[in-house]
Write a structure and sequence with these properties.
By secondary structure, this protein is of the alpha+beta class. It contains six helices and nine strands, in the order ββααβαββαββααββ. Strands 4-6-7-9-8 form a five-stranded mixed β-sheet. A two-stranded antiparallel ribbon has the order 1-2. Strand 8 and strand 9 form a beta hairpin. The longest helix has 36 residues. It starts with 5 loop residues before the first strand and ends with a strand. It binds adenosine-5'-diphosphate. The site of adenosine-5'-diphosphate (ADP) has 20 residues, from helix 4 and helix 6.
Length: 265
């Protein structure tokens, strides 16, 4: 149950009395709190790597001056931290853009099979570096819907990147595309894209919170693999914009499957 927050409004009645009325401002207060939490999170996410970088610089200027091996090590770490900050700022911009457009239904004709093929092309090198085989398992038939091609590409890139980052020990990531005659929740015919990995998975109690900004099952692991904590929040907004839904299944030790359902009707 949520608390209701009221604002008291006092209006003089003109006869020396005061009329007090109450306005329900719960949603305004909640929005304000969410904005403050978000700013606090972003500040923290940026300050941590900046503090680390400053520490390395001071060490290189002081105790480790002239130590080439230390310099190489510290520079590599600083470069990794800077890379993560650049990705974070990029993800923040994407998030604010997709949030701004969420109410505008996209209208371009998009073919999903071609998008999945370009996801495989884009992420092929990252998959290879992680020792993951990236596969499409679907009939090579055209599947059309109305959407925003760049944003849909971003959805499948984010999900596939996660499958590679967190599921690489499973050795394989499979993208599949199927048709659903009528999705019971959307109440419409839909196209379904499954992105499945065979990695460590997670407890499903996390599923409903994964699309919150900066929510991570394992923060240490996310940071180690360069995660920003915003990938699934971006996915959620884009899927919402397409009036679709995201289904998440995972089993510890077996892997995860993220399914995107996009209505075609
Ligand atoms: P991040 O940048 O941390 O990867 P995301 O929003 O993309 O942020 O994902 C949120 C969290 O969900 C991750 O930190 C990770 O804990 C978990 N997660 C996402 N995808 C997977 C997956 N395929 N397998 C296991 N955990 C995952």
């Amino acid at each position: 149950a949520h608390e209701t927050i009221y604002r008291a409004i006092c209006t003089p009645t003109g006869e020396g009395g005061v009329l007090v009325s109450f306005q329900d401002v719960t949603s305004l207060e909640t929005a304000g709190q969410m904005r403050r939490d978000f700013v606090a999170n972003v500040s923290h996410e940026l300050r941590t790597p900046l503090t680390a970088i400053q520490g390395f610089i001071e060490t290189l200027q002081g105790p480790a001056r002239g130590d080439q091996a230390a310099a190489d090590r510290f520079l590599a770490t600083m470069s990794k931290e800077a890379g993560r900050m650049i990705r974070l700022v990029g993800d923040l911009l994407s998030l604010s853009q997709v949030e701004g457009e969420e109410r505008i239904r996209p209208t371009e004709r998009v073919e999903l099979h071609a998008i999945l093929k370009s996801v495989i092309r884009t992420l092929g090198p990252a998959a290879e570096a992680a020792g993951v085989e990236l596969l499409i398992e679907t009939a090579a038939e055209e599947r059309w819907l109305l959407g925003d091609p760049d944003q849909l590409m971003q959805v499948f890139v984010n999900l596939t990147e996660n499958a590679i980052k967190y599921g690489h020990d499973g050795g394989r990531v499979i993208l599949s595309l199927s048709e659903v005659a009528r999705d019971p929740i959307l109440g419409l015919p839909a196209l379904q894209v499954d992105i499945r990995d065979f990695g460590q998975g997670f407890d499903e109690m996390h599923s409903h919170r994964l699309t919150e900004r900066f929510y991570r099952v394992d923060s240490h692991r996310s940071r180690a693999v360069g995660g920003t904590g915003l990938g699934l929040a971006i996915v959620k907004h884009i899927v919402n914009r397409h009036k679709g839904r995201l289904k998440i299944h995972s089993e510890i030790g077996k892997g995860s499957c993220f399914s995107v359902l996009l209505p075609t009707g």
